[in-house]
Amino acid sequence: MIFQTNDTIVAQATVPGEGGIAIVRISGPESIKIAKSIFHPSDMLKDHMMVYGKIYDGETAIDECMAVVMNKPKTYTREDVVEIHCHGSQFIVGQIISLIIANGARPAEAGEFTYRAFVNGRLDLAQAEGVMKIISSKNEFSRVNALRQLNGGISSFIYEIRENILDMISTVAAVIDFPDEVDEDISADELYNQIDQLVTRIKKECNERKEYVENEGVSVVLFGKPNAGKSTLFNAMVRQNRAIVTSVPGTTRDILKETIEIHGISFSFYDTAGLQESNDIVEKIGIERSQNAIQNANVKVLVLDGSNFDDLNDIYTQPDLILINKNDITGPVSFTALQEKYEGIPILQISAEMKQGLEEFKNALYDIVKAQNIETGILSQHRHILAAKRTCDALQEAQKTISNHLPLELIGVDLENALQEISSIIGDNVNDTIIDEVFSRFCVGK
Ligand SMILES: Nc1nc2c(ncn2[C@@H]2O[C@H](COP(=O)(O)OP(=O)(O)O)[C@@H](O)[C@H]2O)c(=O)[nH]1
Ligand SMILES: [Mg+2]
After folding, report:
1. Are residues 295 and 350 in the same domain?
2. Beta-carbon neighbour count of residue 313 at 10 Å?
3. Best of 245, 252, 254 to mutate for ligand 1, by most ligand atoms within 8 A of CB?
């Protein structure tokens, strides 16, 4: 379902619900005419200027508002756009939208404003996806990446790769067109190496984990024996009394989850049931669930009771970080044996109860996640990574042709395929299904 683009569309651009104000956006050839027929005083409406007035349905005033008309092409869609900032009641918004429709617009579909920006060349496909990413960004990390994408960070990389492939295509053309002047064997060797470098470069910029961290955040599981202080630590980290804390071992049975931001990244903490042999059926289920949560977590934090941590039976999982808790009653403890058993794993002494060492804990978590390679890579969206993989496949096909000493002109097709695949990331030569899929993930008004 690719949208029609020659008519005028309208939608609420702000989130539906009650608010101080709501914004109704109109885009298309009729928008300014429609605005002038419902906004008074209409002669106040000037290009890119916000003005005060009222919306009228015939003789009836509907709302007091601010309005701005924006002549194309300096607008989001590159069409004439009008925004009406009315009071944020869904009833009023509904009335204004109906009035605009009665005057010749039609309701916009989800993502349709951004689609027009794409069709009119204001954004490429990767940038359009960047719009969606920035709208839904949940933390500083995803905001920074989304903004980079929106500003063409991906697009310029794609142009660079395209240039490279185009160069190769012209080398092949030279071999075909001037067989006497160009040595085919030398060109073949050079091309083979160039392809190698290009494939390495593309692969280096693919990082699926980054996208995961942007969307899902990092999962941190607190595990260990009963009474080590996991729930106390969980509560201290999320600054709430979420988990029940008692001195009775086996208190925590269900897994709790809370999310906080550390240095711009979302971390979701999971409090689990203590790992011990148990005959209690509820506790047993809790322990089983905990085992699953521990296995699936991005960062596994082993919490130990500083007054009693020699016995590490029941602990089968390799931790990424170890916390020795209850520092307030034990003072500094020696943990040489622990260091030997878990070589290279950071060990911190903390007091969950007294909230001591929590900043160090946060920094250690951040360091672990950074070391997991989340910041590198220009391509992180699933669609982009798939296209990049297909690009590399096509390039490697070309390499096979070269290794098999087949005529160089045969790699032209593979290079053309590679070119198409990499270009699909920014929306060149993509079919409607892909475009549909990208825009279907937007909501109305975007
Ligand atoms: N002194 C001291 N007691 C703690 C500390 N952390 C937890 N506790 C106590 O240890 C007991 C078990 O704590 P809890 O958080 O329920 O442990 P969990 O079973 O690992 O979740 C409770 O009585 C807590 O008050 C700490 O840092 N210092
Ligand atoms: Mg607990």
Report:
1. yes
2. 9
3. 245
The pLDDT value recorded for residue 1 is 60
Q: Work out the number of other CB atoms within 10 angstroms of the CB of residue 439.
A: 23
Domain that holds residue 174: 138-207+379-427
245 and 162 housed in the same domain: no
Lowest mean pLDDT among 192-196, 356-360, 407-411: 407-411
Of the candidates 345, 329, 353, 408, the residue with the CA atom closest to the CA atom of residue 234:
353
Kindly list the distances between the CA atom of residue 292 and the CA atoms of 115, 255, 276, 368, in Å, as whole numbers in the listed order: 42, 10, 15, 21
- 230 with 183, same domain: the answer is no
> How far is it, in rounded angstroms, from Cα 132 to Cα 216?
16
Q: Does any domain span residue 336?
A: yes
CA distance between the termini of the chain: 17
Contacts 24+ apart (CB under 8 A), 307-312: 309/335, 309/338, 310/337, 312/341
SS3 helix, strand, coil % of the chain, rounded to 5? 45, 20, 35
Nearest ligand 1 atom to alpha carbon 354: 27
**CATH code for the domain in which residue 46 is found:** 3.30.1360.120
- Over the chain, what is the mean pLDDT? 91
Q: What is the pLDDT of residue 444?
A: 83
Assess whether the C-beta atom of 245 lies below 6 angstroms from ligand 1.
yes
Cα(248) to centroid(ligand 1), Å: 10
pLDDT of residue 40: 95
Looking at residue 277, the DSSP 8-state letter turns out to be -
Report d(CA 114, CA 103) in Å as an integer: 23
Same domain, 88 and 45: yes
Number of domains into which the chain is organized: 3
pTM for the model: 0.79
C-alpha of residue 12 to centroid of ligand 2, in Å: 46
Instruction: Report the distance separating Cα 359 and Cα 350, nearest Å.
Output: 10
Rounded Cα distance between 93 and 300, Å, is 49
Residue 137 CA to residue 13 CA, distance in Å, equals 17
Residues 366 and 392 in one domain: no
Give the strand pairing for 60-70 and 81-88.
antiparallel
346 in helix, strand or coil?
A: coil
Query: Same structural domain for residues 183 and 202?
Result: yes
In a domain, 324, yes or no: yes
Distance from residue 325's CA to the centre of ligand 2 (Å): 13
Q: How far apart, in whole angstroms, are the C-alpha atoms of residue 403 and residue 192? A: 8
